[in-house]
Each structure stands twice: as C-alpha cells, then as structure tokens.
Specification:
Helices cover about 75% and strands about 0% of the residues. The protein is built from 13 helices and 2 strands; from the N terminus they run αααααααββαααααα. The longest helix has 30 residues, at about 105-135. It starts with 12 loop residues before the first helix and ends with a helix.
Length: about 350
C-alpha cells in the first residue's frame, strides 16, 4: 500500500479553491441574479437580461480582458518578443471589426465571439487540468487518456447541444438576431454517449486507484467536477437568453483568469508597489466603461454601437493572443515563474 501524498496546488489550497475552482459557484449566483433581477425596476428598466448582463460584463468579463495587457504590454520581455502583434496586430483586429460592422455582420460577429469564447474557456480549463496533473505527477498513460477524453467529450457534448437543430435566428437581444450554423442532433448524441462511456471508465479508475492505495489527484478531480457541472448546467439543465447564458458560462472563467493574472503580476513585477491592486482597479474601471458602452449598444444607441466595435475586437484579440502567451513547454523561465514554490 502506498502512502497518500498531500496534493500540490498552483499557489495554495485556499487561493486555488477560491479563484481556480470554487469560483464556479458564481455560475449559480448569476442564475439567481437573473431570476430576481426583474424585481429591480429602478435599474435598467427592470430588464433582468440587461441587469444580469451588465453586472457580468462590467465587473467580471471586460476586467479579465484588460488583465491580458499586463502580460502582453506591461511585460517588456514579452512585448519585445511579439512587438508587431501587440501594436499593428491589435490595430488590424480593430480595423477588421469596423469592416465587418460596415458590411452588416455585427450580429454574426457577436455569435462568433461567443463560440470562440467557449473554445477559449474550454482550453483554459484544460490548461489548469494539465497543470494539476503535472504538479501531482499524475501522468500515467491510462489516466491521461481518461482525463482528456472525459473532459473534452463532456464539454463538447454540452457545447454542441446549444447549437443543435436551431430552427430560427439566434436572438441576441430583442431585435438583434443572427443566423448561424446548426448541428445535427446525432452529433450531440454521439458526444454525449462518448462522455458517459469515459465517465464510467474514469470513476472505475479512481476506485481501482483507491483499492491499490494510490493517492487521488484532488485538485484535478475538483477542477473536472467544476468545469463539467457548470457546462452541463448552462447548456443542458437550463434554457436562458443568449446574453444570460454567456454570463453563466463565462463568469467562472473570468475569476479563474483574474486569479491567474494576480499570481502572475505578483511574481513578474515584485518591484512595482501594489501592482496587483493597481491592475485590478484599472481593470474594473475599464470594465465599467466598456460595460456601459455595451449596454447602450444593445439598446441600439447609434454612437455606442460604433464605439463598442474596438472593444469587441479586443475581446477576440484576447482569445487569440492568450493561446500564445502561456506556452510553458517552450518557456522554462515562465514555467518556473508560475509554478515554482520558491
């Protein structure tokens, strides 16, 4: 019988459980806000969709987008590595947004951003999954196959369900609609069947490891539970308007990312006084400004519809660059920075 080892965390048990795992509870908190928001008639005309979406986008989503600049622009080493992408590349993203809007594809751009965002969220959860596996030496081939198979089949079964057999345009908000792709029901059935198969094998594997006296990877198990249950709740268990579903799905990811960036800023810029509080404050100010612009845009105020274009493209820019700036396998210094216990 092997002795059980204490689990390894990225920062600490309290920090990880608060930001990287326990923040999944905000999905249910926002669902509760949506349910009671129509009673708040004094704000946003009591529109529970707009109330829920404004709280989400102003205080959670856009603040986490802003935090990306701590890595891409505040970090001089990283900025010099991809200077064109962080200057002219960002400008090209914004120009593309104005072009797409001028062509009348604004609604399709919003839905595309939501789809891209879902993939971005799945990839972030996957990144945390890999980190917890590495930290806890949970790298047996069978465990790798079961972990990744269950995670991806489960998240995609939920995601595909949301775009299955769409009979009419997607309603973003009131008259703002978009026609988008629809998936045949069989794809959801296949991926759901795969997930159930992986789930049975995964649970059996954990039981077998306990029988053998091998330690279970607690952080990994908690993360998988959080990621899969939130996806199931948003895409299977509830039927909410487009903007509300976006808030329910994304808020967990937003707080995960804020926690990650605060950990990064503290270690990368130890010479900058109160760097974490300064960046958090700036991100919240940015989020409040963009959130107000976005709400006016949804209400079809002409100036806001155009002003919000660059902010929409900054969101897509974040999705793109975030897949480039955390390549730990190619950057030993970054790996030591984020995972070293020194």
């Amino acid at each position: 019988m092997e002795k059980s080892a204490a689990p390894c965390w990225i920062v600490s048990p309290g920090y990880d459980l608060t930001f990287f795992i326990g923040s999944c509870l905000l999905t249910w908190a926002f669902f509760g806000l949506y349910q009671i928001a129509d009673q708040l008639g004094w704000v946003l005309q009591g529109d529970n969709i707009l109330i829920t979406y404004f709280v989400f986008t102003a205080f959670f989503d856009h603040p986490h987008i802003f935090q990306t600049f701590a890595r891409t622009h505040l970090d001089r080493t990283e900025f010099n590595r991809r200077r064109f992408l962080y200057t002219w590349g960002l400008g090209l993203f914004i120009i593309a947004g104005f072009l797409i809007t001028a062509l009348g594809w604004e609604s399709e751009l919003i839905v595309f951003a939501a789809v891209f965002g879902t993939w971005h969220i799945i990839r972030q959860h996957y990144g945390f999954l890999r980190a917890y596996k590495k930290l806890n030496q949970d790298t047996e081939e069978l465990d790798n196959w079961l972990d990744y198979g269950m995670f991806y089949s489960g998240t995609f079964a939920c995601f595909f369900n949301d775009y299955t057999d769409i009979k009419s345009p997607i309603v973003i908000y009131r008259q703002l609609t978009a026609r988008f792709f629809t998936l045949p029901y069989e794809i959801t059935e296949i991926t759901w069947g795969l997930f159930l198969g992986f789930l049975v094998l995964f649970v059996g594997r954990q039981i077998w490891k306990m029988i053998q006296g091998k330690p279970l990877n607690l952080p990994k198990l908690l993360l998988l539970t959080a990621a899969l249950t939130t996806h199931y709740f948003v895409f299977f268990a509830t039927a909410t308007p487009f903007l509300v579903a976006e808030a329910l799905e994304t808020v967990f990811h937003d707080v995960q990312y804020q926690g990650w960036m605060m950990h990064y800023e503290k270690r990368r810029f130890p010479h900058m006084r109160h760097i974490v509080l300064k960046m958090l404050g700036l991100s919240l100010l940015y989020g409040l400004i963009v959130g107000l612009v976005e709400i006016y845009g949804l209400l079809r105020v002409e100036w806001a519809m155009w002003v919000f274009v660059p902010f929409t493209m900054i969101v897509l820019y974040h999705y793109y660059v975030d897949g480039l700036i955390w390549k730990f396998g190619k950057d030993a210094e970054l790996r030591r920075l984020m995972f070293s216990k020194e």
